[in-house]
Amino acid sequence: MVRHRNNRINPTYSAATAMRILKHPAAQIGAAAILGIAFGLNVGNWAANIGFVGDLFIRLIQMSIVPLVMTSVRAPRRFAA
């Protein structure tokens, strides 16, 4: 909010305010979701052709999660106080 000489508040946002808001992780997730929906609605047929990129990303995440979980379950407790 910007205050003018007569002490009234103008609801216009500056670029610095927008950048401060977008530094918050929840705002970034919300902005990405809105942009993803808009992208899908505008170029949905074309985006279906590159769907393998998303599938590859999900498979890579799954491939890394299982070893991490199994390692944390089987880790020895030598360094516990």
Domain module tally: 2
Extract low-pLDDT stretches: none
Q: Give the neighbour order of strands across the main sheet.
A: 1-2
Q: Helical stretch count? A: 4
Give the beta-strand count. 2
Gyration radius over CA: 23 Å
Q: Sheet bearing the most strands, described? A: 2 strands, antiparallel
| Structural class computed from helices and strand pairing | mainly alpha
One letter per element, helices H and strands E, the order comes to EEHHHH
Distance between the termini: 51 Å
Helix proportion of residues, in percent?
55-70%
Strand fraction: under 5%
Write the layout of secondary structure elements.
Elements: E1 2-3, E2 9-10, H1 15-22, H2 25-42, H3 44-49, H4 51-74
Antiparallel strand pairs: 1-2
Protein described:
It is a single chain. By secondary structure, this protein is mainly α. The protein has 2 domains: 1-42, no CATH class; 46-74. Helix content is 69%, strand content 5%. The chain contains 4 helices and 2 strands, in the order ββαααα. It has a two-stranded antiparallel ribbon. The longest helix is centred in the C-terminal third of the chain and has 24 residues, at 51-74. The N and C termini lie far apart (51 Å). The relative contact order is 0.05.
